[in-house]
Amino acid sequence: MEAPYSPAKTEVLPLAACKVRPNGRRVLIVGGGGTGAALAYDLAQRGFAVTLLERGELTSGTTGRHHGQLHCGARYAWADRNIAKECYEESLTLSRIARPCIEYNGGFFVALGEEEANLPRFLDACAQAGIPTESVSPTALLSLEPRLSPAIRAAVRVPDGSFDAFRLATMFFAGAKLLGAKVLPWREVTGFEVSGGRIKAAIAKHRGSGREERFEADFVLTAAGAWTGKLGSLAGLEIPVTPAPGAMLAVRERVVDHVISRLRAPSDGDILVPQRGLSIIGSTQRLAEDLEGSAALPEETAFLLASGEELVPGFSSLPVQAAWTAARPLAGRASPSSGDAEGRSLSRDFAAIDHEAAGVTGFASLVGGKATVLRAMGELGADLVCSKLDVTAPCRTRDFALPSWRVFYQGRAP
Amino acid sequence: MNYVFTVGEEGSETRLEAEFDPSRTVLEALEELRGSSAPGLLYRHSCHHGSCGTCGALVNGKPRLMCLTKLGELVGPEILLEPLRKMEHIGGLAVWPGPLFQGLPETDYLRPTAPRGGSRRPSGWGIEAEAGRAARRLEDCIECGLCVEACPVERNFLGPAALLAASVELEKHPERTAELRAFSGGRDGVSACERKFECARACPQGLSPGRRIAELRRTLAEEGPADPAVGR
Question: How much is the ipTM here?
Fold first, then answer.
């Protein structure tokens, strides 16, 4: 097969080689997940004076809590070619700029029973999205991954991987910090100052000391994932985001080295992701109003164990490390009354919503997306800020290796 | 079952009471309490499955990850929660782990996985699992700092997490031997360890930094003192 990408051709530079020309414009980011992290890093690299506020610990929302699959996009190639292509490109980029937190071992889509019939359509969809695939015989698959079910009838190798969700985002925070961004956890935004239709500042409370702080800015971006709607309402805006919690379960054994996905249209319990000494099976999807709370429901746990058992015989008797949920921030609206009780009709694509049309200038929200495309979401948001503030500065986040996550936590608390 | 949580920080105490199934974890209980009666409760958390290492706290006086501690494992319905004392306090149970990360040496965080058999054919995709090359995985240490918290050594000491990292790195990257020996062999290095092995008891990953420190100390002793001109 023709190699679509050669790592040797695209060397990345150390961040120390990155020269930044400050432009004097102040940008405030609200939300300290993966998107906010990538946005802060990108904007700092383009010369903006960046401040990021997060109400709790960084990555404490959805970012740290998904199963950590580095998506090559094959999962979405069936239905969502744009996000599939974007995932493939971004998985290659992350493998270069954030390699230290990625287990980049590839993945297999496997067919059980009737799923074998999906094979031609899957290969075709991947080819159309530009994602490389290789069909592998069940015998060859089992020699590489002997714990997988002997009932598997067909397998396709894809360039998937897994990453440490917390450390990937924290590498972007570390990069932002080294480039001068102020990344401030434990600050809860309590209101926005809008005057003459333009946003001027945000008021935030330090949740440890209780002290109120005012942050002036030339532009404000929210990157609050499933919490975007709540934040928008502080500025009198209605922002369409559908929080869709999903449950995951980790067993205390690394049963495979490759990411294993079912060869069928995305549904529940169809991805098995190895990470460190764990194997994570996910996920489920439902819609929810209440974003707090993190426990998986007993029926979700039972379902996930049974799903794991289908892929790896004996899975359901392995010791369970944890079961938990994360709230996906799907862009747009879905509801049980619209006939989509799980929100699967919503795209995993992302968008920057400029709130100027709704009457607030200098204010935008990044919505939707997936962890794998965090860098691209940051680029989209930073492009919008550049065009709105008349700043010419190209995106360079593909060119430099991110510093270690450890760098972020060195020194005193900000 | 009815549980009473006392969140104790310097100079103040918050008592929270609620019904929970004993199969719930301390972190899940805090998430529910924050969503209802205690919106101002502060604690670090991220992955909820023992990978990120952020949710360490003293649970009834013992350093533990709250996401892996089930209420039913604890004795009685009274649970005392306190922030890690060796980190910088923010508020409530929340800390800034600067003291931990300040001391960690820069190391390679990936290592080969145990071989499963089968032959890997080259893909040309830039992934790890190429011909003749093992798959790679993240290291075991999740950098939660519980070993540092549990360590009884009071004098200046690099601590179990940093020395474990140095010892693992030394095995993987012999080319860094001189630098890592200088790092580990100083007055605040392996010789400061008091061999109480509290670190191993606290480690949620089942690692034994104390044993690695003892091995490192033997190696350093056999090979003579480190060259003070290298590293540090």
Answer: 0.94
